[in-house]
Structures are given as structure tokens and as C-alpha cells.
Amino acid sequence: MKHWIIWTPLALFIGFLALAASGLIVPRDTTIESQMIGQPVPEFALAPALPGKPGLTNADLATGQPRLLNVFASWCVPCIAEAPQLMQLRRAGVQIDAIAIRDRPADIAQFLARHGDPYRSVGADNDSRVQLSLGSSGVPETFVVDGDGVIRHQHIGDIRPEDVPAILAALEDAQ
What we know:
- This protein is α/β, with parallel strands linked by helices.
- 37% of the residues lie in helices and 18% in strands.
- It has a 5-stranded mixed sheet.
- It is elongated and about 80 Å long.
């Protein structure tokens, strides 16, 4: 009569397995894009992250020429991976400013000496306040800022060689 009751636990278990497998096969996108795209860079003034390089303010990003704003840290492994691409962009004439997140001047200097220094200026964001105000959720992240200081594009994660043309196109669009 009620033989289906015997099979109910097995059916529920199979349903659970199917749900878990679908999450593993097609994981959801966990990328958090900044809500600041299309908005002016928030007001900030960061002290220099290391001697010999200027700090960074939001006014430095509104000089009439588009530029990249790179959020990085010396302790960030993907930041090492993107260093050659940042140097390539710098050699192509791209102005790059940086925000160093929760870092020490000696570590930043060692990182830049080892992996190259593409930055015009590096501001120290020791409490991640500016990073969070930009809508950045981690390191590395790179923003294309137009000449008026408006964020036009966000690249989440390390810049890989295949990303360079898209970043150059975003800079061109920000003219």
C-alpha cells in the first residue's frame, strides 16, 4: 500500500546529491563589482607609501588624462603575476598610480625592486578605508579613471597578458 514511504529517504538523498553536484559543476559567480563605476573617485588623501614617491589624492586622478589606479600589496601573490603586464602598460605610455593596502614601506620597496615599478605615485592605505570606498573587494584590482576623475572601468584580479588589450581599449574609451 504505502511502499513509496520506504523510498522517500533515498529520493531525498539523491535530490540532495544532485543539488550539490550542480553547485560544483556550475559554481555561482562570486565577483563583486564596484558600485562606483560611472561615479567620481571618492575624496581621499593618502600619505606616501614609501620614501621617494609621492602619496596619492583623488585630485591627482583628475588631471585631464585617463590613467590606471592599481590596488595592490607586497604580500599579494597575484600582484606578482600582474607585475609584467603593468610594466608593459607603463612602457606603452599609460600613467599608473597605486594604492598599497595594509603594507609596510620596506616590503613595498622590496616588492617594486624585485618585480618592477610602474607607478607614478603610491599611497598608503593602512586601514583599507580608501580601498573600500572605491568598491574594491580585494587585491589586486585596477580601475580606469578618466581625466575628470570618474571611474570608468574595473578589472578584478590580476591583469594577465590577454587582458592588456581590453584595458588599453578601456583607457581609449575614457579619453
